[in-house]
């Protein structure tokens, strides 16, 4: 489905500017909005973003030669524009829209697109599980509505607008994800998305470097409600220790007319789960919705914490009027996103849990629990990378993680990163044997895993913060297995 097109008047209204430079006969409509000079179509409007490595303004002369006719640029660029660039733009009959900040302008264009479309918006944030919950929710909604969803991890002040700019005249709902690491970031995204349903999956110790403490996390996440649409709904985790902060923030906005709770302690009006268990690698449980309706769900994942994500998706779906059968079908069709609880069989003796996408203390502990469940009493290895953005208490959180792994009875603890020593210290302080620990490069961790697998079946968890790139451990294991196979 093609996005709703932008004409000159649309852009001027969205950005609150007049076209500051125009050639005669310039394009009247733009098919889409692009920030990527490599993939842009000549019928698109180009927004020149300035990044750490590239400045989109530098590509404008080449884009004009390719036939692009519209550019959103920063005033500073326009003021210092070389005469030859100005001449190229004039000759090509191109349009310029000058703004103070092109990232802000991208958001303004996306907000305009969102408000003129007929689509409603589900916005999802949280310390853990937001991507999984978004995938589940989108999977359910798409069975009833024409639904647009965040692609990949486009959940920041650039990614969210790029998603909403894809809205067409046919879309009925958009399911978007909001990420952050400092105060004010979610508020910006809320202003762009104007949620009809705002979902917070949970709050925990994440991004503490910018938010100071976990109460700060809750306040930052609840910014999602600041720009909610009229007659909006808030979906909240009933058992979250910061639930009062989340509830009060939702109630502060008179446009939020309904608050729905999910979780074990959700109350009779909420969404809750019953009799959760794991059988044959599947998570089986019952969901209870208001009016005492109960239905069975079998999730294609062995992680117990996926129950909470399922309940959040269910609550959003029920709020949109979706029936329980559709919710059940959507949840049961869900498959984990790459790097998030993917269970992989590698070789004869290795069961690997790829949870490499990101990490914080709560998600690390939940992943260790899942490792123990899948192993079923067998030999376990936790290959853990640093948890970043933990602030001044980073050493403490890593030591607590090591203690948790030791008390869980993990057979071997392999760690990588500058903070890895604190994980091992926490384990050793809990009586863990130093013979069962290793700190070092990822390639050596892979070798150690294969060494253990030669003795018998092992179950290994690989996890760490995104920039630790712990997936390289998995790639190294695969490469070593291939070499072994080639040598046989």
Structure in words:
With 488 residues, the protein is an alpha/beta fold. The strands form five sheets. It has a six-stranded parallel β-sheet with strand order 9-10-8-11-12-13, with helices on both faces. A six-stranded mixed β-sheet has the order 17-18-22-19-20-21, with helices on both faces. Strands 2-7-6-5-4 form a five-stranded mixed β-sheet. The longest helix is centred in the C-terminal third of the chain and has 17 residues. The protein is globular, with a radius of gyration of 25 Å. The mean pLDDT is 92.
Q: What is the count of DSSP helices, taking H or I runs of 4+ residues?
A: 18
What portion of residues is helical? Answer: 25-40%
Q: Tell me the span between the first and last alpha carbons.
A: 51 Å
Q: What is the number of E strands?
A: 22
Which strands sit side by side, in order, in the main sheet? 9-10-8-11-12-13
Q: Structural class of the helices, strands and pairings?
A: alpha/beta
**Which spans have pLDDT < 50 for at least 5 consecutive residues?**
none
Average of per-residue pLDDT values: 92
The biggest beta sheet is recorded as: 6 strands, parallel
What does the radius of gyration come to?
A: 25 Å
Proportion of residues in β-strands: 15-25%
| Net shape | globular
């Amino acid at each position: 489905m093609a996005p709703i097109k932008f004409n000159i008047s649309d852009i001027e209204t969205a950005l609150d500017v007049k076209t500051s430079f125009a050639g005669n006969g310039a394009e009247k409509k733009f098919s889409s909005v692009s920030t990527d000079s490599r993939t842009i179509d000549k019928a698109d409007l180009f927004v020149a973003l300035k990044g750490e490595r590239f400045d989109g303004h530098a590509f404008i002369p080449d884009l004009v030669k390719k036939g692009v006719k519209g550019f959103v640029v920063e005033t500073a660029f326009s003021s210092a524009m070389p005469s030859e660039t100005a001449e190229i733009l004039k000759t090509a009959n191109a349009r310029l829209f000058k703004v103070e900040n092109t990232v802000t302008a991208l958001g303004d264009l996306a907000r305009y697109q969102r408000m003129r479309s007929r689509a409603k918006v589900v916005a999802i944030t949280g310390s853990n599980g937001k991507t999984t919950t978004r995938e589940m929710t989108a999977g359910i909604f798409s069975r009833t509505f024409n639904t647009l969803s965040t692609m990949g991890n486009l959940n920041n002040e650039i990614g969210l607008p790029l998603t909403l700019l894809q809205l067409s005249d046919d879309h009925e709902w958009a399911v978007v994800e909001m990420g952050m690491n400092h105060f004010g970031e979610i508020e910006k995204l809320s202003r762009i998305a104007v949620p009809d349903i705002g979902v917070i999956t949970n709050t925990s110790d994440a991004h503490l470097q910018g938010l100071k403490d976990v109460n700060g996390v809750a306040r930052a996440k609840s910014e999602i409600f600041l720009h909610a649409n009229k007659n909006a709904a808030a979906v909240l985790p009933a058992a979250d220790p910061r639930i009062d902060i989340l509830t009060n923030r939702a109630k502060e906005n008179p446009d939020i007319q309904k608050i729905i709770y999910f979780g074990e302690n959700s109350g009779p009006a909420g969404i809750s789960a019953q009799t959760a268990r794991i059988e044959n690698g599947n998570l089986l449980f019952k969901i209870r919705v208001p009016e005492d309706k109960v239905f069975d769900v079998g999730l294609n994942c062995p992680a117990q914490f996926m129950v909470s994500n399922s309940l959040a998706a269910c609550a959003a779906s029920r709020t949109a009027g979706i029936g329980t059968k559709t919710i059940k079908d959507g949840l049961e069709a869900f498959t984990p996103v790459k790097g998030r609880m993917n269970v992989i069989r590698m070789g004869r003796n290795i069961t690997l849990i790829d949870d490499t996408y990101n990490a914080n203390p709560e998600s690390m502990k939940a992943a260790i629990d899942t490792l123990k469940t899948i192993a079923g009493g067998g030999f376990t290895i936790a290959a853990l990378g640093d948890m970043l953005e933990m602030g001044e208490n980073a050493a403490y959180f890593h030591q607590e993680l090591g203690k948790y792994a030791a008390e869980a009875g993990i057979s071997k603890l392999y760690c990588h990163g500058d903070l890895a020593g604190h994980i091992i210290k926490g384990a050793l302080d809990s009586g863990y044997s130093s013979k069962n620990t290793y700190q070092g490069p990822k390639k050596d961790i892979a070798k150690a895993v294969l060494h253990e697998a030669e003795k018998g079946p092992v179950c290994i968890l690989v996890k760490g913060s995104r920039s630790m790139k712990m997936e390289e451990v998995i790639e190294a294991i695969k490469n070593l297995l291939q070499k072994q196979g080639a040598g046989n």
